[in-house]
Design a protein that fits this description.
Elements lengths: L4 E6 L5 H10 L3 E4 L1 H9 L5 E2 H5 L14 H8 L5 H9 L7 E5 L3 H6 L5 H6 L4 H11 L5 E3 L5 H11 L4 H29 L13 E6 L9 E5 L12 E4 L5 H14 L6 E6 L2 E7 L3 H11 L7 E5 L5 H7 L4 E6 L4 H7 L6 E4 L5 H5 L3 E6 L2 E6 L11 E2 L7 H14 L7 E5 L2 E6 L5 H12 L7 E4 L7 H9 L3 E4 L6 H11 L2 E4 L8
Parallel strand pairs: 1-2, 1-4, 2-3, 4-5, 11-12, 12-13, 19-20, 20-21
Antiparallel strand pairs: 6-7, 8-13, 9-10, 9-11, 14-15, 16-21, 17-18, 17-19
GO biological process, one term: 'de novo' IMP biosynthetic process
Family: Belongs to the PurH family.
Pfam families: AICARFT_IMPCHas, MGS
Length: 515
């Protein structure tokens, strides 16, 4: 078999003229629709209008142009089926051997700010996916190209043997069904959101590959990095890598964790993360000061860590960063000097993410967590506490400085694996107890780490204290202020301990479990 007739109908016209010119030179007859055929004709590529094939005009603003039996018989006929061949002959129909289609730009349309609903709907392509699906189903005989990146390969095969190989046609068909499935998923998602129903009876998300990863969490696990179409520009998926080796699976998870925390802060802040938990968080008047604090919070754990800053990294900060081994530094930018200093280090990865605002931390999105055989989906935890709504439950109110440290600790504890206890003093974390199976255990780790710095520190607990024991331990370590959700049947026990020791305790009324 050889490709004799192609149907070309593309919204994205890049590369189409050269491709069709070559096909035409190889003896392929080109049929085309409205704008595509106008372009081809203008560029001197011989082309037959679709209406000459269907005997029907392109009507309704392009809503109906290729949706015609003359097209779909040509695409779907099983060439070695005598009955199909006879029907084609009797009806005077011709085969179509190659379909080149890309679809109305639905994603780009809904990405426009304040796009009108009607405009979005008009950009749902119907004729295109229909042709793609017909051709892909009949890939035993028909080639189908949805991606301009495949033009060269198809040309090469047609040049060599008059047709594509069956293996190529299978690959092209599989790509088509992934493409139309993703296209429909995006439409379904858009409509679900318009209807205020983001968790409907079928969850049809679609993701596109950013890159293959060398391996997953461990070297024997395969992995890849995907992004949601239209992912926000303040997410890690939009980060630009300025330097260093390619990101690993663990890097991506850790950098994402660091990013979520640093987005909590308005003031210059630096977050160091290890194994998805913060090991040091600091805020200060400058990124330099914030990094010093994040570093001093836990100079041991930061080694080999991921650092995220919410301000441009300057030369002074870079000079400190270069002194230890760090996997990643993520920031809204780097000064030229800072870049010069840091790029001398072969093993550090530098990521630039221009769009780092606290508003981003307040925008809810859906988080998907896989389980074996399924998944659970929830809104991201974007709750932030309003200081005016804190309930002081102890005899003593926190001082203004204590309140500041408590609110800082609360922002951090939200991002620490439960059970979580975070101690903060002097605008930096001084103790982080993460991922323990009981709350006393988490507090013990945080207090031990803080040592002398526990004295006068503020403590945040991601969930209520089931009894008074954690508070007793905190009080004995010298902690003077506590923030926690409250809501335990034994709250009174904790309040009593707090009052005994003169601790100021506030309830947020909101829990921040993170498993
Ligand atoms: N309605 C139809 O019969 C139809 N047939 C092809 N299309 C689309 O029209 C676009 C190309 O249009 P044009 O060649 O007029 O620039 C392609 O994205 C193609 O997928 C159609 N448009 C939408 O459904």
């Amino acid at each position: 078999m050889s490709i004799k007739r192609a149907l070309v109908s593309v919204s994205d016209k890049q590369g189409i003229v050269d491709f069709c010119r070559e096909l035409s030179a190889l003896g392929v007859e080109i049929i085309s629709t409205g704008g595509t055929s106008t372009l081809l004709a203008k560029e001197g590529v011989p082309v037959i209008g679709i209406s000459d094939v269907t005997g029907f005009p392109e009507i309704m603003d392009g809503r109906v142009k290729t949706l015609h039996p003359a097209v779909h018989t040509g695409l779907l006929a099983v060439r070695d089926n005598e009955e199909h061949t006879r029907q084609m002959r009797e009806l005077g129909l011709d085969y179509i051997d190659l379909v080149v289609v890309n679809l109305y730009p639905f994603a780009e349309t809904i990405a426009k700010p304040d796009v009108a609903y009607e405009e979005a709907i008009e950009n749902i392509d119907i004729g295109g996916p229909t042709m793609l699906r017909s051709a892909a189903k009949n890939h035993a005989f028909v080639s189908v190209v949805v991606d301009a990146g495949d033009y060269a390969k198809v040309l090469e095969e047609v040049r060599a043997g008059g047709d594509t190989t069956l293996e190529t046609r299978k690959q092209l068909a599989a790509k088509v069904f992934r493409h139309t499935a993703a296209y429909d998923a995006l439409i379904a998602d858009y409509l679900a959101n318009v209807l205020g129903d983001p968790l409907p009876e079928r969850y049809t998300v679609t993701y596109e590959k950013i890159q293959d990863l060398r391996y997953g969490e461990n070297p024997h696990q395969k992995a890849a990095f995907y992004r949601k179409p239209l992912a926000a520009l303040d997410t890690l998926t939009a980060a630009e890598q300025l330097h260093g080796k390619e990101l690993s699976y663990n890097n991506i998870n850790d950098a994402n964790a660091a990013l979520q925390i640093v987005k909590e802060f308005e003031e210059p802040a630096v977050v160091a993360v290890k194994h998805m938990n913060p090991c040091g968080v600091g805020v200060g008047a400058s990124v330099y000061e914030a990094y010093q604090k994040a570093y001093n919070a836990d100079p041991t754990s930061i080694f080999g860590g991921i650092v995220a800053a919410n301000r441009i990294i300057d030369a002074d900060t870079a000079n400190m960063l270069k002194d230890i081994f760090l996997e990643i530094v993520l920031a809204p930018g780097f000064t030229d000097e800072a870049l010069e200093i840091l790029t001398k280090k072969k093993n550090i990865r530098l990521l630039k993410l221009g769009n780092l605002s606290t508003a981003a931390a307040r925008k809810s999105s859906l988080i998907v967590t896989s389980i074996d055989g399924g998944m659970v989906v929830q809104e991201s935890d974007v709750h932030s506490v309003n200081p005016d709504e804190l309930q002081v439950v102890t005899d003593r109110k926190p001082t203004a400085e204590e309140l500041k440290q408590l609110l800082f600790a609360w922002k951090v504890v939200k991002h620490v694996k439960s059970n979580a206890i975070v101690l903060v003093a002097d605008n930096m974390t001084v103790g982080v107890g993460a991922g323990q199976m009981n709350r006393v255990g988490a507090a013990k780790i945080a207090i031990e780490q803080a040592g002398e710095k526990s004295k006068g520190a503020a403590l945040a607990s991601d969930a209520f204290f089931p009894m008074g024991d954690t508070l007793e331990m905190a009080a004995k370590a010298g902690i003077t202020a506590v923030i926690q959700p409250g809501g335990s049947i034994k709250d009174e026990e904790s309040i009593k301990v707090a009052n005994e020791y003169g601790i100021a305790m506030v309830f947020t009324g909101v829990r921040h479990f993170k498993h």
